[in-house]
Amino acid sequence: MKILIGQSYFRVLDPKELERQMPYPALGALYAATILKNLNYEVIFFDSMLCSNPDELNIKIKETKPDLLLIYDDEFNYLTKMCLSNMREAAVGFIRTAKKLKIPSLIYSSDATDFSFPYLDAGCEAIIYGEGEITLQETIKAIEDENFDRVKKEINGLKFLEGKIIRITPRRKLMENIDYLPNPDYSFVDMNEYRKIWLKNHGYFSTNISTTRGCPFRCNWCAKPLYGQTYNSRSPEKVASEVKELKEKYSVDHLWITDDIFGLKPSWIKEFSDELKKIDVKVPYKCLSRPDLLLRGNTISDLKESGCRTIWIGAESGSQKILDAMDKGTAVEQIYEASSKSHDAGIEIAFFIQFGYSGENWKDIKLTRKMIRDCIPDDIGISVSYPLPGTLFYERVKVQMKNKTNWTDSDDLDLMFSGTYEKAFYKILHRFVHSEYRIVKYLKHKRLDKLPKILLHAFRFIKFRLKLNRYLSQNSVSRLSFQKADGKKA
User: Fold this and answer.
1) Is 294 exposed, middle or buried (0-12, 13-18, 19+ CB in 10 A)?
2) Under CATH, which architecture does the 2-168 domain have?
3) Does the pLDDT of residue 479 top 70, yes or no?
4) Could you give the angle at which helices 299-306 and 332-344 cross, rounded to 10 degrees?
5) Which stretch of 13-17, 349-353, 409-413 has the lowest confidence by average pLDDT?
6) What stretch of H or E contains 240?
7) Which residues contact 28 (CB under 8 A, 6 or more apart)?
8) Among residues 103, 229, 269, 408, which is most buried (max CB within 10 A)?
9) Are 219 and 261 in contact (CB under 8 A)?
10) What is the mean predicted confidence (pLDDT) over 392-403?
11) Contact 98, 372 (CB under 8 A)
12) With contact defined as beta carbons under 8 Å apart, do 69 and 95 qualify?
């Protein structure tokens, strides 16, 4: 059986990501391809991260005439979890192409799980939801044996159409031992091309690995359509061996550990560090964590010892009111303390910031700006609140979402619900806060060599400040109250 595998996220359809030139292979699709290859299926892998036009996959479908089209999204990459309309339109188009050629298709993605009908109506045989690997194997075996229609109701983790009604089989139980899974086979993609892009634009080569699945925390805006509230991890030994393989086989200089929460289990990071020492491997990496976890025991020093270069945390807001409304379970003071201790240990710390959450006003925004200026993180990523199905936040605001339920691309930043301000405000705020951050960061570190950039950001800061002022005054917000809340100086 010949299977063509791709994913619905195309870097070329996401201008912001294309400009960053930091491509990572589609890890989820690589896991699926590796499993199917080990089962002796003929696998044709289409790498949407490096292609220059989405229609290339349509051409591939027509040229290769596979027995099955499998769209298997990379759920280890937050970009694919964002459910972007550009990517949905592309995926639905591929399904239609396959349908015209009488080629069955399957899809596995957060968006297809949340918004199933467009995919099924286009001709997709079924949507795989929850953890995908076992359901995938059972479904493909049924298609291969030509009895899928008869047995599909018996396969856990599927959604399919009966007439115009979506039928859903029971959710599949998650694997507790994910060491069962093989390491992804990176030979399906052109690692030399990835390396070339990274070296040209950044001077080093980074690739991605995963050590866990799921997140047990309950931030009420965070969608978890595939793994839910669970948390399962690979063994430190197996992860260390994969790091060694990537270093020796592909000469990686850096890793992105894609976990929602890295090293949550007590002592895991220490054991990982010990395993790396045993095999004499150390590769710098970036990971995601929480400020409260960083303050637990020797976590920061263990991260440093294992090679961690950068920790990204979901700081979100400098307002405790907003953190509590989000059910973050963290305190602003912990963000400050974790930042200070990480810097003292020689580890970079970076903040994810989220503006626009329900109830946020200019006073809360001012507190977030203050937190950024005080902590001087090594990088920041700014977004606005994005309601996704399956979250408490979505349930609270869905009646306000009338004409739009998804962003077009990752730089859309449309609030999509009735927040304190509108999309135009947050677009300006995004650029204003970035300019302010860059100025403060350069001055704090006395980077006089960056004087031209400081002046450029100062110009932008003033320009966006004036735009914010104008926006607020034109939208029935007192200019005087804005100035009082912000103070005479930024």
Assistant:
1) buried
2) 3-Layer(aba) Sandwich (3.40)
3) no
4) 40
5) 409-413
6) helix 236-250
7) 7, 72, 73, 74, 75, 76, 77, 80, 108, 132
8) 269
9) no
10) 89
11) no
12) yes
